[in-house]
Design goal:
Rossmann fold, 18% strand, Restriction Endonuclease, 10 helices, 3 domains, 6-stranded mixed sheet, 16 strands, alpha/beta
Length: 422
């Protein structure tokens, strides 16, 4: 899978200090990408590789490696099941120092060079309490401890929260050798993320003019990449905002063919037939006097042709009794107009609270009655098909004239052709 927009690795989150701190320049020199958590705590942890923290930081990303300077050990809290590996910071008195025998040679030399001169046991009493793990357990390796086992620094695999941590005393001042060691250590498992060799060759002091020129060119290209990505991100955000606005408008208009009942459903059916399919439509209720018996909802006309149209919405299936009312209104219309209507349309939005794709056909199981209804010029129209017909006209795949002909030429249950219902 190709992933676009990946930042340069290793991607390091900084916690507990800002860009003015002396550690900041060290992290920025050796890390591929740096994010200051104090400036913006909202990040996607899965996109980051490591954390350099001064003091405790709340991190819950099981893959992250941590270099911590002082504070309560990150990930040190344990459940009852992992109590033996729980880590905590405590004050302890003990002046003698000891480097464990099982430290590898390069780490032993680093501890001698960086920690022994730094640690003053008479002053530095904040130490990691001994765990209940065996002395050779790979989950916990003290780097320097007193004779009671209380550690000033340690490598550990915490019981939860993060993957691994290199913990240093809070008075550490020289971060660079520890960060480089951590990168080498972590590269054993993740060579594609962490550099395995000291990065002094990336220090401009020891780079050739050719390297500096190439580095500058790469930096410019990365900056251009970020600029283009930012532009594209802005375009995507604009398109998504436009989509949200359109969806909101559609929800309040044509999609009501699939969701509404009562007057809102009558209104959107009226608008669809009149504005999109170009019928002449009259709302019959608008012309009724107060107290006058209700008739069909709409009368739909086209050059002398006329259909009586009843519109209903249902939370469950459509009712035959509502369809049957049309035959009575057709008789009444014939008496008033001197001729019967050309058609009777029963437009129904059934199961309106469900996904339209899962709804059963309109009046399923009433095939015999639909056949009789069709012989009388009746047509049952599912609002799903009216939505599809409207969509086809709007897209230009079907003309309004052809859409009218489909409805006017159908009886029984409306079955739109494949051009409308693929």
């Amino acid at each position: 899978m190709v992933v676009y927009g990946e930042a340069q690795r290793p991607r390091v989150v900084v916690a507990g200090f800002d860009k003015s701190h002396p550690f900041a320049s060290v992290v920025e020199r050796y890390a591929g990408t740096v994010h200051y958590l104090d400036e913006n705590p909202n990040i996607r942890w899965d996109s980051w590789d490591a954390v350099v923290a001064v003091g405790f930081a709340a991190i819950y990303a099981g893959h992250v490696r941590v270099l911590q300077i002082g504070g309560d050990p990150i990930g040190g809290v344990a459940s009852r099941q992992t109590y033996a590996s729980a880590l905590s910071l405590t004050d302890h008195i003990g002046e003698e120092l000891e480097i464990p025998d099982r430290l590898p040679d390069d780490l032993r030399e680093l501890v001698k060079r960086e920690l022994i001169p730094l640690v003053d046991p008479q002053v530095d009493r904040s130490r990691i309490s001994p765990t209940r793990l065996a002395t050779n357990d790979e989950r916990y390796l003290p780097l320097l401890h007193d004779l009671d086992g209380y550690a000033f620094a340690a490598l550990y695999l915490p019981p939860l929260g993060i993957h691994a941590c290199l913990y240093l005393p809070g008075n550490t001042v020289n971060l660079a050798p520890w960060l480089l060691y951590a990168f080498r250590l972590w590269s054993d498992d993740l060579p594609d993320i962490f550099p395995s060799q000291p990065e002094w060759t990336s220090n401009p002091t020891w780079m050739t003019a050719e390297e500096l020129s190439a580095q500058s060119d790469a930096a410019e290209k990365r900056a251009e990449e970020q600029r283009v990505m930012a532009e594209q991100r802005a375009l995507v955000e604009g398109s998504e905002a436009s989509l949200a606005q359109i969806r909101e408008r559609v929800d309040a208009s044509e999609r009501q063919l699939l969701t509404a009942d009562g007057p809102p459903l009558v209104a959107i059916v009226h608008q669809t037939l009149e504005e999109m399919l170009e019928f002449e439509v009259t709302n019959v209720d608008d012309g009724l006097a107060e107290g006058q018996a209700k008739k069909e909802d709409l009368r739909v006309a086209d050059d002398g042709w006329i259909a009586l149209c009843e519109v209903k919405g249902y939370t469950r299936g459509a009712k035959l009794s509502d369809l049957q009312k049309l035959t009575g209104w057709a008789t009444l219309y014939a008496a008033e107009a001197g001729r019967p209507p050309n058609a009777m349309w029963f437009v129904a939005n059934q199961f309106r609270g469900t996904d339209p794709s899962t709804r059963q056909p309109l009046l399923q199981g009433a095939e015999e009655y639909l056949e009789v209804f069709g012989q009388q010029g009746g047509l049952a129209i599912d609002t799903r098909d009216l939505f599809r017909l409207r969509k086809a006209v709007a897209s230009g795949s079907v003309s309004a004239e052809d859409a009218r002909a489909m409805l006017m030429g159908s009886t029984g249950r409306f079955e739109p052709p494949p051009t409308v219902r693929p």
